[in-house]
Write a structure and sequence with these properties.
The complex is a heterodimer of chains A (110) and B (114).
Chain A lengths: L2 E5 L2 E5 L4 E8 L3 E9 L6 E6 L5 E4 L2 E5 L3 E6 L8 E9 L6 E2 L3 E6 L1
Parallel strand pairs in A: 2-11
Antiparallel strand pairs in A: 1-3, 3-8, 4-5, 4-9, 6-7, 7-8, 9-10, 9-11
Chain B lengths: L4 E3 L2 E4 L5 E6 L6 E7 L6 E7 L2 E5 L6 E5 L5 E5 L8 E8 L9 E2 L3 E5 L1
Parallel strand pairs in B: 2-11
Antiparallel strand pairs in B: 1-3, 3-8, 4-5, 4-9, 5-6, 7-8, 9-10, 9-11
The chains are: A mainly beta (110), B mainly beta (114).
């Protein structure tokens, strides 16, 4: 069965304290892996798409990487406005629907 | 840039009533997806449509139905509402094709069933 697991469930960082979020997945074949940011009561906001192992994408303080079994979202020198829930989703081969992980709730303290 | 539009943004219904949620995809996107997100949970896939045909089906109750119209907007119809249907309902759209599978989400419709 296709599955996505994110860790940690929650993370508190001081402003400027870099860290990484993990997304582990098991799918029959990976079409794509996607990272989103979600603020409370709002729709997921697209961050990155990764298609193959070894691929990396970067945007401001965020960097996403992908291996054959997991993806990392690295946050460098975070700011309070980076506080949100970060969702990982995968698409398995043969389908376009997303399977989401349960997310990591990030809180960055000033 | 234009985003996905959902209406209404908030909806309050009584048990056993019906509700209709609407979704207007990003212009030129050909695929629409519906997700349900309960409190503190991740979004769960309900159903999707590609070029007005159902393309995939997830954990959508038989009480729910959906369709995509000729202008590509989609409607999710929910009947015999139950308390457990209270959730955020998101619509997402994409332009299906090689390396274009990214889904863009709307702001959601918050449904409260009393």
């Amino acid at each position: 069965e296709d599955q996505v697991t994110q860790s940690p469930e929650a993370l508190r960082l001081q402003e400027g304290e870099s860290s990484s979020l993990n997304c582990s997945y098991t799918v029959s074949g990976l079409r794509g892996l996607f990272w989103y940011r979600q603020d409370p009561g709002k729709g997921p906001e697209f961050l990155f798409t990764l298609y193959s192992a070894g691929e990396e994408k970067e945007k401001e303080r965020l960097k996403a990487t992908l291996t054959k079994k997991e993806s990392f979202l690295h946050i460098t020198a975070p700011k309070p406005e980076d506080s949100a829930t970060y969702l990982c989703a995968v698409q398995a081969s043969g389908t376009y629907k997303y399977i989401f992980g349960t997310g990591t709730r990030l809180k960055v303290l000033a | 840039a234009a985003g996905v539009i959902q209406s209404p943004r908030h909806l309050i219904k009584e048990k056993r009533e019906t509700a209709t949620l609407k979704c207007y995809p990003i212009p030129r996107h050909d695929t629409v997806y519906w997700y349900q997100q309960g409190p503190g949970q991740d979004p769960q896939f309900l159903i999707s449509f590609y070029e007005k045909m159902q393309s995939d089906k997830g954990s959508i109750p038989d009480r729910f139905s959906a369709q995509q119209f000729s202008d590509y907007h989609s409607e999710l119809n929910m009947s015999s509402l139950e308390l457990g249907d209270s959730a955020l309902y998101f619509c997402a759209s994409s332009l299906t094709g090689r390396n274009q599978e990214t889904q863009y989400f709307g702001p959601g419709t918050r449904l409260l069933v009393l």
